[in-house]
Design a protein that fits this description.
The chain contains 28 helices and 18 strands. The protein is of the alpha/beta class and 669 residues long. It binds a DNA duplex (15 and 10 nucleotides) through residues 75-77, 102-105, 129, 208-209, 211-212, 272-273, 275-276, 374-377, 380, 398-400, 434-440, 475, 477, 550-551, 553, 574-577, 598-601, 614, 637-638.
Amino acid sequence: MAQDYVIQNLRPPVEFHIDYAKELNQQQHAAVTALPAPSLVIAGAGSGKTRTLTYRVAYLLEQGIPADRILLLTFTNKAAREMMRRVSDLLEGGLSLLWGGTFHSVGSRILRRHADRLGYRPDFTILDREDARALLKTCIEETKIEHASRFPKADVLANLFSLEINTGDPLSKILSEQYEYLEPFGEEISTVARAFTTRKQKTNVMDFDDLLSLWLKLLRENEDLLELYQRRFQFLLVDEYQDTNRLQSDLIDLLAKRHGNVMVVGDDSQSIYSWRGANFKNILQFPERYPGAQVYRIETNYRSTPEILNLANAAIASNTCQYAKVLKAVRPSGERPVVASCEDGRQQAEFVAQRALQLRESGISLNDMAVLYRSHFHALELQMELTRRQIPFTITSGLRFFEQAHIKDVSAYIKWIHNPADELSFKRIIQLLPGIGGKGAGKLWSAIQAKDTPEAPLNSQPLAPVVQGCARLAPKKAQAAWAQLSATLSQLEDLKDQPSAMVDLILEAGYTEYLQDTFPNFRSRQEDLAQLSTFALQFKTTDDFLTQLALVTNTESEDEAAAEEPEERIRLSTIHQAKGLEFPVVFLIMLCEGLFPSTRSMDRIDFEEEERRLFYVAVTRAMDHLYLSYPAVRMTAGNSGEMFQRRSRFLAELPEELVDTWNLRSSLF
DNA sequence: CGCGGAGACCTTTTT
DNA sequence: GGTCTCCGCG
C-alpha cells in the first residue's frame, strides 16, 4: 500500500541548481519554499502568479517529492500545459508523471478508471453544453407536465441544475432565492431532474457538471478510493482559486484532508465567474477553513506601467468586499491610459483600427495587441471594419470551433462507435440520411436498443451488422444511404484508436458530399474538418480524442492553429477569455452603461462588484498602452434604431487626472 | 413524416 | 448573423 509522505522514504533529493532567492522576490520566495502546510497566496494581477506556481513545483521536486505525488489544478487546460512546459524547461525535461489540468479533465481521467462504481462504463461520452441541453429537452418532453407551455425551457432548467450542483444548495433554496416565478413548478422540476440523471446514466454520458459532482460522489462513497487519491496527491496546487465553486472547494478539501499540503493561489479582485457558481468567499475564508494556513501576499506588479496600474487600483477601489491591497508598480513610467469617446460603433471601430496601425508603424506587432469587450456581439462592427481594411485578426467567437454542426456530425460517428449507448450521437448520424427525421430516428433507436441484451451487450459486438439488420425499418428513400452507413461503420470499427483516420474515412464515405449539397459555405466547413483530422492526429486513443474534444476550449485550439502560421494578428476576445493573459496594447471597447456593466447581469445580487472586477481584469491585461472607448450612440438590436449611450459607470468613477481624454466626436464638427 | 422556406427572435460571461 | 418555429407541400 502507498506510504504516507515522509521525505526520507522517497528518492534522494535531486539538485536543479535553481537560485530561488535570486529568481523570485521575497514574498514569492517565501511562498515557494514554505514547508508542507496549507497556504494561501494572494497574488495581485501581473504579480508573477504563474511564476510562483512554477517554481513551487520545481522546489517540491527538488525536495525529493516524486512528480506523480503532485496535482496541479488550473482554470484552463492551456494554463496547465503552459505551466508544465515551464517547469519542464526549468528542470530540463522528464516530467511526464506530473498531473495537471482543469478540474474537469482530471475528474474525467479519474472517473474513467472507476466508472463502474457509479453505474457507468469507462467509455462514457462527455456531452457539451448543447448536447446536454438537447438531452434535457427530451426529458422535459417525456415528463407529463401541467401547463407545459409555461414550464421553463431547457436552458433555464440547465442553468438551474448547474447552480444546484455547483453551489451545493438545495433546489428549493435556489428557487426561492433566485427563481421565485418557478416555484410552482418545483415538484415537476425535480421529476425532470431525476429523469435527466437516469437518462444520462442509461446512455452512458456525462455532462460537464457530472465530471465534478460524480468525482466528488466517487470519493465520498468509496473509502478505498478516497484513501488512494489522498495518498497519491500529497501536494495540491490550485490556480485561480477565486473562481472555484463549492463543488471544487469540496473536492480540494477532501483530497487535502489527510496531508493538508494544499497551496491555493488567486486574486479575489479577479473573481469573475460567480454566475457559474464560483464563490469567491472560498478564498476569503480559506484561513478559517485551514487553521494554521500561511498567507502570502504578492503585491508587486511586474506587468504594467505605473499609469495603467494607478488606473487599475482606482477602478477596483469602489469594491468593498475584498482583501485590501494596492499593487505597486516596478516598471518605469509610460503613457497615460486614454479614454476615447466616439460618435458611434462605427467610429469606435475606425479608431481602434487606425490606432492599431499607428502602433504597428511604431514597431509593435499586431500579435501584441488585443481588443477586449464584455460580450461577443460587441465586436461585430469592429470585425467588419478590420475585414474592410484587411487587418488580420483572430476572434474567439461565441460559436466554438468544436461545437459547429459539421464538426459534431463527424464526431457523432466516432462517439457512437465508441459508446453504443450514446443515443444522441446515433440519432444525429441517422438524421443525416435522407428521409429520416426525429420520429424515424426514435423508432430506429428503439430497434437498435432491442438488440442490446444482457447476453449480447451492444458495446461488445460489432455494430455494423446490427445496423444492417435494422435496414428494413428505415424508409425506402434511405435504403442506399443506410447500406452505406453500415459499411462505413464496419470500416470505422477496424480503425479503433486511430481517430484521425476515422475522421478522414467519414469524410470520404459521403460526408463531404453531404456538405457540398447542404451548405453554401461548404469549403470553409471542409477546411474545419481537415483541421479536426489534424487535431486528432495527436491522440493515440479514441478515448483521449473524444475527451479532449469535449474539454478543449476554442481559444486553446485556435492558439495552436495560429501558432503554426507566421502572419501577425490582432486578437479580439471577451474579457472572460482573456483571463490570465497579457498584452502590450489593450483596447477595451463598448464601455457604455447597459453593455458594461451588462443589463443582463443586473438582476443578480452583487452584480456591480462582479462587473467591476471584470473591468479590473480587463485593464490589468495591459502592459504598456491602454485605450478605453465608448460610442455615444449605438444601433439597437432588431428595430434598427439608434440609442443614446451613457459612458459606463466604471469610467465615471475614474479620477480625471489618471487618464487622457480624447473626444473624437467634436472633431467631426 | 420529412423537408424546405419564411419569418420571428435573440445575442453575458464558459469548463 | 444564427437558431428556432411554424407552415404547407410532397
